[in-house]
Structure formats: structure tokens, C-alpha cells
Amino acid sequence: MSALFSTATLRDLTLRNRTVVAPMCQYSAKDGMANDWHLVHLGRFAIGGFGLVIVEATGVTAEGRISYGDLGLWKDEQIAPLARIVNFLHNHDTAAGIQLAHAGRKASTPVSWHKGVPHTEAEKAAIGYEHWTPVAPSAVAHNPNDPDFQTPTALDAAGIANIIDAFVAAAVRAEKAGFDTVEIHAAHGYLLNQFLSPLANKRTDEYGGSRENRMRLLLEVTKAVRAVWPAEKPLLVRLSVSDWHADGWQTEDSVVLARELKALGVDAIDCSSGGFDGASINPVVNYQVPLAKAVRDGAAIATMAVGLLGDIEGAEAILTNGEADFICLARGALDDPNWAVHANHELGATDYTLWPKQTDRVSSRDRSLGLRAFSKP
Ligand SMILES: Cc1cc2nc3c(=O)[nH]c(=O)nc-3n(C[C@H](O)[C@H](O)[C@H](O)COP(=O)(O)O)c2cc1C
Q1: Cα(105)–Cα(331) distance, rounded to whole angstroms?
Q2: Is the distance from CB of 305 to CB of 273 less than 8 angstroms?
Q3: Is there a contact between 132 and 107 (Cβ–Cβ < 8 Å)?
Q4: Do residues 46 and 17 touch, judged by C-beta distance below 8 A?
Q5: CB 31 within 8 Å of CB 128
Q6: Which one of 22, 162, 283, 316 is most buried, by most CB atoms within 10 A?
Q7: 8-346: CATH number
Q8: Exposure pattern of 268-283 as b/e (b: 16+ CB <10 Å)?
Q9: Residues 104-147: tens digit of each pLDDT
Q10: What is the CA radius of gyration of the chain?
């Protein structure tokens, strides 16, 4: 049995294997509501054998969306279409996670395929276009030279309290939708990451200045979410472990933070990086794996490795070398939604039980063609 296809248990949740689909914004929702696109997009990863599928960054408030096309969980009507997706994943033995998010100053930006292409009024009506002024720790734009990023309004004490309440309310709705885990999004230069990083946090109150103060909001959100999230269900946090910026948040900061998150009942850290202007990133194969290892070793907490991990033997080695506990794929899963079933055979599986019964006739094709379990040495 490979490490990648061994089961993993976090609290009372046992994953059938250690393959995870990372959250991926689809910019395909209207008023934050999941629809058939999200069902098919996410459902195919369950058919493809993944252990856990994490639903995209989902706005805890309407103003916390990256774009008007993001999913949301700021009102009860948004629960049912997500529950339909959760049911599908569960019916195919895949656990369901959802990333709860607030984009902060990176909110209200164009969807990626509409950057620089203005919508007509008719298109705006059809897609539910909305535009609003974002909020952030400080009134500093993400990139003053890019008109897509507005100067945000700095949050006051009441605004910060509302953010915490919104994460809690969204977590309660995620539980009602049946999710097995929630992931708090504190990465990629979005709101909680903006509070952590001195690049975006210029506050002089108890939420800014020292590292302890900059960590305060994420720790308060985590504590409040953990209090309402069922004790038997795991809680995840995604961090930008490093800003890749000399004046920014560093890996050592993440180790300290991860220890505190663990003490609050976080079960695993999803280890990403970057998200601020001026970062110096070298995106090569496995480039974020050392970050997952640093957090895993430094805070004695389970980690998820992510970022250019597509090679199957390489993914297996990350686990067997003790660099991370889970392998998360985003683009690799888009490229091959059956990546997990394929990887299982590559790592030696000779049975077809990871294929859903509707697809296991692949085995008869493989027998006839002498593939996978039927290949001759
Ligand atoms: C289409 C797309 C949408 C993404 N949306 C999110 C998101 O909603 N939340 C998030 O934390 N990361 C998001 N990411 C980043 C991925 O989760 C992942 O960390 C990154 O793509 C690196 O993994 P990969 O090399 O396997 O693609 C997105 C990436 C892609 C390609």
C-alpha cells in the first residue's frame, strides 16, 4: 500500500486516501449561489478517486468576495445548493471541505477572464455583476498602479467584530450543508493574510504592529469558528507560509502562528505562499514543499503540501520523507480529474476498487490491452 493511498484520520473524519483537491475559484456563481457548474466541476474529482475535495474560496460576506462570481455562505439560501454537492461527494466516498474566505482589499476585482474587458450593461444583468468598495486592515491598495484594486476602507473595531461573526455564521451554515471540514483562508494576500503581513497591516491598535497583534484577528476567528464547528470535525487553515518578501511575513512567523493555531484546535495547515505585490517567487516543481515541512517540523501539526506537485512518485516521496501529510492538487486536478485513480495504479494498485462502480469497466479494457494491473513485466 502506498503512503498516498493509505487512509488518514483527523478527529472523527477518515479520508480514504491522502489526495486532496485544493480550493479553486470558479467565478461562476450568481449572488454567491452554487449551481450545476460547481456540482460537475467538484463531482468529477469524487468520481476520480480523491480523498477530500475543498470547495473554492467562499465569501463569508458579500463584500468579502474576490469577484461578483464567487460562492458565498452569508445567507441561508446558499446552504441547499452546497448541500447537493456535499451529498454527491459523500455518495462517492469523498470527504467535503469548504474554504471560508474574505478577500479584504483584494475584493471586487474582475473575474480572471474578464480582466480589461468591460462588460456591456446586458452582460452585467445576466451575470449578476456587482462592484463595491472593499475593506481591509488599513486604507492601502493592494497595487496602486493597477486600477482593478481599489483603495479599501480601514476596518474599525465594529467592522472587525462583524468579520469574526461572519466567519462563525458561515461555519454554522457549512455544518448545515453537511461539510466534513472547513478551511479558514488566511493566505494569498486576502483579508486574514493582510492582517498578518506588515506589507498590508499598518494599524496602530491591538490588531497591528507586533507579530502578536497582527496574528490576533486570525486567532480570534479561529477560536470563534472552533467553538461552533463540531468537536468531531477537523478544522483546517490555509496560510501563506511566506510572503517571499524581505519586509513581509516569514516562514518562522508561520511556525509560531501554527503552534498557536494548533493550541486552538486546528488539525492541519494547508501550506501555500505569496499573495502580495513585489513578492519574489520562483514557481518550480514542489517549491512550497519546504514550507510544509518547516511548519510540520516546527509546530508538530499535520500539513498539506500544494503547488506544482503533479509527479506521482514525487508526491509519494513527499509523504514518505515526512515533508507533509496530504497532497493537494489544483491545476493538476483540472488537467486530470482522474489523477487519483491513475496515481493509485502507478503506485502499484492492482484492484479497481477506487474507480466508482459505474466506471470500473475500465478494468476490462486494461485486461484486453495489457495495461496497469494486467501489464506484463
Ligand atoms: C483556477 C484556480 C482557482 C484558485 N482558487 C483558489 C481559491 O479559491 N482559494 C485558494 O486558497 N487558492 C486558490 N487557488 C490556488 C490553488 O488552490 C493552489 O494553491 C495553486 O494553484 C497551486 O497548486 P497547483 O500547482 O496544483 O495548481 C486557485 C488556483 C487556480 C488554478
Answers
A1: 25
A2: no
A3: yes
A4: no
A5: yes
A6: 22
A7: 3.20.20.70
A8: bbbbbbbbbeebeeee
A9: 999 999 998 888 778 889 988 888 899 999 999 999 999 999 99
A10: 21
How far apart are the C-alpha atoms of 27 and 36, rounded to whole Å?
13
| Residues counted in the chain | 377
Q: Is the CB of 21 under 6 A from ligand 1?
A: no
Atom of ligand 1 nearest to the CA of 185: 11
CA distance 162 to 222: 14
Residues 6+ apart with CB under 8 A from 317: none
Q: Where are the beta strands (DSSP E) in the chain?
A: 8-10, 13-15, 19-21, 52-59, 71-72, 95-101, 135-136, 153-154, 181-186, 235-240, 268-272, 302-306, 326-329
User: What is the tens place of the pLDDT at every residue in 300-342?
Assistant: 999 999 999 979 999 999 999 999 999 999 999 999 999 999 9
24 within ligand 1 shell (Cβ under 6 A): yes
> 137 Cβ partners below 8 Å, 6+ apart?
104, 154, 155, 191, 194, 195, 200, 201, 202, 203, 207, 208
Instruction: Collapse the DSSP code of 30 into the 3-class scheme (helix H, G, I; strand E, B; otherwise coil) and give the result.
Output: strand
| All three cell numbers of 291 | 514550507
Confidence of residue 356 (pLDDT cuts 50, 70, 90): very high
As a whole number, mean pLDDT of residues 186-203 equals: 98
The answer, yes or no, to whether any atom of ligand 1 lies below 6 A from the CB of 188, is yes
The 10s digit of each residue's pLDDT in 27-61 is 999 999 999 999 999 999 999 999 999 999 999 99
Can 190 be counted among the known catalytic residues?
yes
Q: Which residue type is seen at 353?
A: T
- 23 Cβ closer than 6 Å to some ligand 1 atom: yes
pLDDT for residue 74: 98
Mean per-residue pLDDT for 231-238? 99
The CA distance from 140 to 162, in Å, is 20
Our mutation pick for probing the ligand 1 site, out of 19, 21, 24, counting the most ligand atoms within 8 A of Cβ, is 24
* pTM confidence score: 0.98
Ligand 1 atom 4 nearest Cα: 24
Q: Which position has the grid cell 474507480? A: 355
